[in-house]
Amino acid sequence: MSTSAVEPGTRLAERFRLEDRVSESDGATLWKAIDEILARPVAVHTFAPDFPRVHEVVTAARAASRLTDPRLTQVFDAAEDDKHAYVVSEWVTGESLTDLLASGPLEPERAAGLVAEAAEALAHAHEAQLYHLCLRPAHLVWTTGNTVKVLGVAVDATMYGLTTDQPALDDAEGLGRLLYAGLTGHWPGDEEEGGLPAAPMIDGHFCTPRQVTAGVPGYLDAVTVRACLPESRKGQGTLNSPSEIAEALADVARPMPIPMAYPSTPAVASASHTEGLDIAHRQQLTVSRPQPAPRRPANGGGGSVVNRVLMTLVVLLVIAAVGVGAWTIGRSLGSPTTPQTAETSPSSSTSASAEAQTVKPSKAKGFDPLGDGDEKSEMAELAIDGKPSTLWKTEAYTSADLGRLKDGVGLLLDMGKSMQISDVVATLADAPGATVELKVGDSPDLGSLKTVATEKNAAGKTTLTPDQAATGQYVLIWFTRVPTDAGKFHGTIYEVVVHSPGSA
């Protein structure tokens, strides 16, 4: 089946109906199609009769279909016969790294989190001897389902005829370049890539991320240099594979949904030249205007008479109320010996002051009194920085009960002075299974902190409210069980908000 003979409406395998031609390149055409059996969109590649690598592409696609990591684009079908050849894969919706960088570099933690997810996914592909070899910003996607997707594993390299003797090193360098792009908004190559400008150079060498963008943490700069900037390593060891990249980024915060203002225009996908994402196609979100309330029909003019009578009564009542109020005030002013009992009733300002107020902790640290005393304290401030995209997380454990190594770990907040705690709102990971206790006291010692609230099977935004008055300088969010996270077990806190009715 020639490319020119394949038109919108063509059905493949009696179920995949081609709808929109997304792109064409060297005899390969990418389509948006509909799986008529499952009623879902899919991406379909078709190939011209003279396409030179049809057999290799179909073979690679069939191998990729056995990959189970959800962060890799799923291949549904691949066929080759005398009439036609095609590859059917998942239709991915979301924003590519190119789109995310349209307004400038990402926050370092978010860039590192995206690449860490991609590195773990590619490490799984490498275990099956499947490689990418052509990682570009368009291949890394933050989906509308708030997950990471890596497009094009095995299939794209075969389609473009790319080969290498060192696939692990090549993919490690590709991940390093993605991290460089995320941290700086530049591409470490000789040319622009996907609209990103080429990275600046000094003495013929690419600048490191910290030389390009202020605020890049030193350890992320080092990971990038070790992955893709050999001229700047200065004795630092090379990261030779995606698994080594994943290990180097194992402790970074994983990406959370990007806060969006509403109403908004979300990215709506079509497909790309890889496996099914075209950010160039957008659909505008239409916000319907509220319809005016229907007007009641006039009832022969009778309604207007009634309205006038009611209006007259309202005016009379208002006049009477004003008169009574004036008389009361006059008596009050004229009788100084009368007790001013009105002052005993709470005013609006008094009641407002009694309402719980948000109090920002002065310090935060990871708390592991049953182990080495510390639990990722270098990340603790990220849980009180007001940014929902950053986080603190525990060490990785082998089971939900902390590997049976200890009774608990947590995040300890120093409020700066003793105060009453109304409640603590902690945004946890979405995965259920955490058991969290709220402990409060005037000493940071575990034995001095009193448990005032407990939440089992906690997930997402969790409010811990003391069951009785709780006062102290130190607030501890204490995990006794932690949920699963990418094959391991972590306790995660994206943000903590402490409320207090006032100082104790």
From TrEMBL:
InterPro entries: Galactose-bd-like_sf (IPR008979), Kinase-like_dom_sf (IPR011009)
Record's compositionally biased regions (Low complexity): 335-358
Iron-sulfur is among the record's keywords: no
UniProt KW tRNA-binding keyword: no
GO molecular function: kinase activity
Keywords assigned by UniProt, alphabetized: Kinase, Membrane, Transferase, Transmembrane, Transmembrane helix
Transmembrane region(s): 309-329
Stretches for region Disordered: 332-375
Family matches, as Gene3D superfamilies: Galactose-binding domain-like, Phosphorylase Kinase, domain 1, Transferase(Phosphotransferase) domain 1
CDD domains, per the entry: PK_MviN-like
Name the UniProt record assigns to this protein: Protein kinase family protein
Protein source organism: Nonomuraea rosea
